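Why does residue order matter? Because the sequence determines the fold. Keep that principle in mind as you read this record.
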Amino acid sequence: MARYGPRPILLTGMSASVVAGVLLAFCIGHHPPLPLIIAAELALAATGTLSIPGAAAAMAVSAPPEYAATSQGALNGIRQAGSALGIAVLGTLGALTTSGYVLIGIGLLAVLLVARATARPSA
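Structure:
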């Protein structure tokens, strides 16, 4: 992380989460195979953990030293609230027939927006 910064770790974790989300989108239907659901859920859990160290490092570097603990607490609180709200919102959207593909698009858009927001300005 010290050599390249948090950006590559964040992008790797979020991109891998999108791939896992696409795998999970193939589980939409009346009777998806159980091994596919298990593989998709395990992949989503594993790839989600790739993003956390990058986010924590980015927060630690960008916060002033006197607010280091506060910034880490805010990051964890927001992350947990996002997880709870994400389950509620995406669970509702996932129950709709065509929304699985909409969720794929939203995930791809999120990765692109994060990549753009964290892009380094060219000199």
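The two ends are 23 Å apart (CA to CA).
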